[in-house]
Amino acid sequence: MQEKDRGSLRGEGWEEIWIEIISVKATIPLVMGANIGTSITNTIVSLAQAGDRNEFRRAFAAATILDMFNWLTVLILLPLEAASGYLYRLTGAIMDGISGNTKFDRIELLQVITRPFTDLIIELDSECLKKIANGDDVESLVKRWCEKTLPVNGSHGFFTPDPSQLLDAHNMSMGECSINTELGVNASSTEKQIIGNLTKDWKKCHHVFANSSLNDTLIGVILLVISLVVLCFCLISIVKILHTVMKGNTAKIIKKMVNAKLPSPFGFLTGYLAILVGTALTFLVQSSSIFTSTLTPLVGVGVISLKRMYPLTLGANIGTTFTAVMAAMTSSGESLKLALRIAFCHLFFNVSGILIWYPIPYLRKVPIGLSKSLGNTTAKYRWFAIVYLITMFLLLPGLVFVVSLGGWPAWVGVFGPIGLVLIFVIIMNILQKKLPSYLPEKLRTWDFLPLWMHSLEPYDRPMTAIGRWFGKLKRCSFSKEKNNTLTPQTNFAMKSSMESIP
Hints:
Blueprint (H helix, E strand, L loop, with lengths): L5 E2 L14 E2 H14 L2 H7 L6 H32 L1 H10 L15 H11 L4 H8 L11 E8 L2 E5 L3 H7 L19 H11 L3 E2 L11 H30 L2 H11 L11 H16 L2 H13 L5 H23 L5 H24 L3 H20 L3 H21 L2 H28 L16 H4 L2 H14 L17 H12 L3
Antiparallel strand pairs: 1-2, 3-4, 3-5
């Protein structure tokens, strides 16, 4: 791998850690996958409104509209990229006109508020992350020493380099990224004494796990559980607050303002203005997940329409790319050009998707229509939301990865027939809905197939039983209360309500 063809990876919320271990071409599919993966947050957020079928229908449709946009864009741009190197060539041409001698200071917005709190919980050693990426053995990612002093001729000089540099100065070699009180177990008594003298004036970090002897796996599990509990609490609180506030005239006024259009003759620009608003707000919070997860319950309670949610979501997709661009600009030299190139790949992937799925009204209806269909399905079979999460974000990516190991022959052999079946189903659905008279009477519906092949009804009873057995969502998702029981009349009303969303 040539040095000039290496790229850098950056995730939302991480320290700016440029890891030159992967080619730019190989990074582009990873960027596409990251775009899909980040939308899982919205889907999880929508589950907080599963107690009310109508709200859940709208919330789940709002959550999955980003999924549909991302998947549809990947289905078009991934083959295009493989065949022509569209994003690779485009960003390469842009980078040819940029000098690598410039370096910018990193801009922090929301992090200025959140970082002091997160640093009280956990701090990670960025040097460890780099070493892990390079395949080096690392004992712990947790940063325990925040201030280190080195005795020099009887004085102490303040410094914050990799501790291995300090140990090398004393003819010692340590493989760990950071020294803690547990280090030196296998060292000689002389080495232990040197380590003790070196660290006696060092200052420990102040986060919760600074003095903990727990390993990284245990710390990670603890933080994950706490995060999920806090997330669930926040989601439930948001929904309850919205139910309390969004009532009567207040809800009507807010709904009218949020879903208003620009005056004639500029009404057609309303959606594009919403894209700009979504971009700006996401840039401020520097996370598309935060912004879209906030919108999801608002759509659920009916304050924001699904059609207005769509351009706001597209704007969020653009806004989140600016985070990577800003982080890339803090590098210098060749690293700046490499980091910017990956960031621009992310940017132009989303811009290209918007140009495909938004300006043309007919194509705009495709992701919206798919999300509406998922919303209606989930309102009727609420267990489908869990199946959707597992399938779209675990099983399907896993299948694609496994098949890709076999190369193009395996790819064509597995997904070729699946693609042909999907194309046939799509064409048949369009003909059944738009031109049923052109089809033989038997093909005007899917009733000629076994029920399990065209309906979720056969799966409803066992899935409901499994849900009750686990005791999850017993009151909201699987209850048989009269006010939540779907009759043909309520199902028709729900469908009509979804189709009438402006």
